[in-house]
Amino acid sequence: MTKLVEMAGIEKHFPGVHALKNVSFDIEAGEVHALMGENGAGKSTLMKILSGVYTKDAGSVRAFGEEVTFDGPRAAQDAGIGIIHQELSLMNDLTVAQNIFIGREPRGRFGTLNETKLNANAAELFAQLNIDILPTDRIEGMSVAKQQMIEIAKALSYRSRVLIMDEPTAALTNTEIRELFAMIEKLKSDGVGIVYISHRMDEIKQISDRITVMRDGEYVDTVPAEQTPINRIITMMVGRELEDAEVKIPDLADAEIALEVRGLTRGRMVQDVSFSVKKGEILGFAGLMGAGRTEVARAIFGADTPEAGEVIVHGRPVKIRNTRDAVLAGIGYLSEDRKHHGLALSMDVRANVGLASMDQVTNVIGRIDETKLAKTAVDYIDKLGIRTPSDQQEVGLLSGGNQQKVVIAKWLMRDCDILIFDEPTRGIDVGAKAEIYRLMNQLADEGKAIIVISSELPEVLRLSHRIAVMCEGQLTGILPGGVEQEAVMALATQRETTEDAA
Amino acid sequence: MSLTKLKPSGSTLQKALAFGSLIALVLIFSFLSENFRTLSNMINILQATSVIGVLAVSATIVIITGGIDLSVGTAMTFTAVTAGMLLTWLGLPIPLGVIGAILMGALTGLASGFFITKMRIPPFIATLGMMLVLKGLSLIFTGTKPIYFNDSPGFTEIASGSLVGLLVPAFPLPNGVLILFAVAAIVGWILNRTALGRYTYAVGSNEEATRLSGVNIDAWKMGIYALAGAVTGVAGILIASRLNSAQPALGQGYELEAIAAVVIGGTSLTGGRGTILGTIIGALIMSVLTNGLRILSVAPEWQIVATGFIIIGAVYADMLRKKT
Ligand SMILES: Nc1ncnc2c1ncn2[C@@H]1O[C@H](COP(=O)(O)OP(=O)(O)OP(=O)(O)O)[C@@H](O)[C@H]1O
Ligand SMILES: [Mg+2]
Questions:
Q1: A362 to chain B: which residues are within 8 Å by CB?
Q2: What are the residue boundaries of the structural domains of chain A, listed by start?
């Protein structure tokens, strides 16, 4: 096998963080090389150095037989190294095709832009990749999954010889993941070297040839994927063993109903949805991407105004006109899109943790008790294992998974009776995932009502006491916890509501 | 966690940079001219900064939310006219005139805030409209003639008198400068230590995330604009006191100077970042430059050109810093 890329002795410092310590990594032609490690281990940083986004402090990078230093992403792209970033970076106001060919638009005579050719090129690319998106659609308002597919198409359009995918499947449905994997197989057979970052073990085992594990900015080891058991990889990542917990379904026969929703309706995505959650219960919401689960959550939370329906909290109907009303009624919502809806990226960890709970730390004239806020923030940093140099670090500088933990901390601090978690573990490492599951169970034990929306079926099954399944804007049924995956899938792909929805 | 903070954050660095430029400018001018380096000239510079400094503080508040307030200049005039009407026309005592002007400022801010939040008009447009409305109203109310404060003895003392001078005769620091520092300290405190301030940064950083945190952003934003308006009212009092009159035709153009001071001070026009200290330094840099060039007998036309380049240079320095 020929080595396409060899990185050795890579060092990188950020203010207060030694992000990479003497890391080596290589990529062979025609392989999928998985890069694994906990949140903040340095995976994205290493790949950003390879793709010219960051400059290294020390070490050497050889690409295609030559020592290289890229002074920008463009240089890396021209050399044949493409990257799909963890955080989506498409321009909302441009069309799909304009985004894909940004910076290399086909020109007509007199240097004018040739929009027809641009759209034709994009359509051709989509046809090749079997993606069903119109080149002339605008990005604004598109689902995260669609945006992800566009990012992938964009990276592939450069005819890269090395393709880096930083958590590409975090927002994809199973069908889309299958399509992506088919695409990866094809690229492999063309001799492209692929770096694949993901926190989903099953995927890693399925498609990778070699696995490199990092921990705390250090290189741990590189192992063949097939012969290495998952447990061993996890132990390498977290430095200890994790036990696998079964879902324990509590007896909630006498528990009071915390939240009841009746006939909630909003457009096509939320059609006459009714359900209830008891105190101490974890209600999972399963369904395919685009089934309307997020829309239901947003309508309950007042982020979007429903057209019809009632929300009853602790037996009392409440009028929720905006998010403030929802929070006052004791409802908290952790959005799935943390970058746009969850965090004030230019503010520090402490301010973000406190953002939903200012009234807890302010006096009558609105003065913030910084000592108290700092103490609370530091508590959550420890509890959730948020990797940050201090509670005053800008949130935008944390790794993706650690940003997600800050959102969770924000809502834990708010101490709501009813918590809606929308894709809470997207992009979160196994160790932290287990910690978040434990936390949710603990919150339920304390008598909170919890709703979990997740596209990872195993996660819904692992957590939920009952499972509500949605399909195309309708609630197709509510199943008891501990059912088989097949039962959920059947409802998730069924169009009519079953009569005996429990 | 065990890791500790090693380097100052970006905005600290920017402030240090701006402060360094200010010191450098003062040193250069002091070296070039002995008229520049006198105590009385230093006091002149501070006095000249007071009005524009207070206005720039007001502009900073709005700019941190990611908005812009083009009406600060004419709103300042409008509040000065309000003070004139209350004091000279109605013969009210000075404190009532001052409070009235500040309340009127808050009201104009509230109006802008209302247009922006409830009617969803972009800040640029809403405050552009307010700029013209207030300019017109000032001219209408006064019949385009200045209102003098000759019947309110002591009114000029607000900006030009010197409490410090009474205690330390050798150092007659005008009250206007004290007021600037007091306003800066209070607004700095509000921005850093109160919920209102925290939401100011949060809205500028990510308005949607703030809304989804259960914050009633419409109400808070109106509060923020009202606060900025009240600060503008203070500037109105200062300028009226210094001129001993409310000049209805004055005001337009001040907003750009104020915004320039804010930008030199390192506040990001895209919102979410910025400090009052930076803004004060930015305003001082502009006054030092104007004063120094005048003392060196540089033509006023060239002073304007120099100010333009300073703005571009300051933002360029900020860009270089970010590009590490
Ligand atoms: N621009 C930056 N400034 C300061 N610190 C940074 C910056 N980028 C990354 N870091 C820090 O470097 C460390 C490694 O981050 P990196 O994003 O590479 O982690 P990761 O392995 O990709 O994690 P995740 O699985 O959560 O995406 C983290 O502690 C992070 O906070
Ligand atoms: Mg990452």
A1: 194-195
A2: 3-90+139-238, 257-330+416-492
A76 to chain B, closest Cα gap in Å: 18
Domain covering A3-90+139-238, topology: Rossmann fold (3.40.50)
Question: Quick one: tokens of A163?
Answer: 């393709």
User: What spacing in Å lies between the alpha carbon of A48 and ligand 2's midpoint?
Assistant: 10
- Whether residues A323 and B4 touch (CB distance < 8 A) is answered with no
CATH code, A257-330+416-492: 3.40.50.300
Amino acid type, A32: V
Of B7, B194, B272, the CB nearest to A346: B272
B323 touches chain A (CB under 8 A): no
A15 CB neighbours in chain B (<8 A) are 5-7, 9
Pocket of ligand 1 (CB under 6 A): A 14-15, 17, 19, 37, 39-45, 86, 387, 397-402, 429
Whose tokens are 């301010």? That residue is A351
> Measured between CB atoms, does A380 come within 8 Å of chain B?
no
Q: Is A3-90+139-238's fold the same as A257-330+416-492's?
A: yes
**CA-wise closest residue to B108 among B91, B139, B132:** B132
**Which residues of chain B have a CB within 8 Å of the CB of A387?**
1
Sort out which chain A residues have CB atoms less than 8 A from B5's CB and list them: 15-16, 389-390, 392-393
Contact A389 B4 (CB under 8 A): yes
Kind and range of the H or E run holding A283: strand A282-287
Class of domain B3-323 (CATH, top level):
mainly alpha
The complex's ipTM? 0.74
Closest residue in chain B to residue A410, using alpha carbons only? B213
**Is the separation of the CB atoms in A298 and A304 below 8 Å?**
yes
Measure CB to CB from residue B273 to each of A301, A346, A355 and give the nearest one: A346
Helices (H), A190-317: 201-207, 230-238, 293-301
Per-residue pLDDT tens digits of chain A, which is 502 residues long: 689 999 999 999 988 789 999 999 999 999 999 999 988 899 999 999 999 999 999 999 999 999 999 988 888 988 889 888 877 778 887 889 988 888 777 877 777 778 888 899 999 988 887 788 899 998 888 877 788 778 878 888 888 899 999 988 777 777 778 878 888 888 899 899 999 999 888 888 889 999 999 998 999 999 999 999 888 888 888 876 666 667 778 888 888 999 999 999 998 899 999 999 999 999 999 987 778 999 999 999 999 999 999 999 999 999 999 999 999 999 999 988 777 888 998 899 999 999 999 989 999 888 999 999 999 999 999 988 888 999 999 999 998 888 988 998 999 898 889 999 999 888 788 887 888 888 889 899 999 999 999 988 888 988 999 999 998 899 999 999 888 888 888 888 775 544 444 4
A340/B208 CB distance under 8 A: yes
CA angle A219, A220, A226 (to 5 degrees): 120
Per the CB < 8 A criterion, the answer to whether A423 and A256 are in contact is no
> A76: part of which helix (H) or strand (E)?
helix A73-79
Residue A182 to residues A133, A174, A207: CA-CA distances in angstroms? Answer: 18, 12, 10
C-alpha span between A20 and A22 (Å, rounded): 6
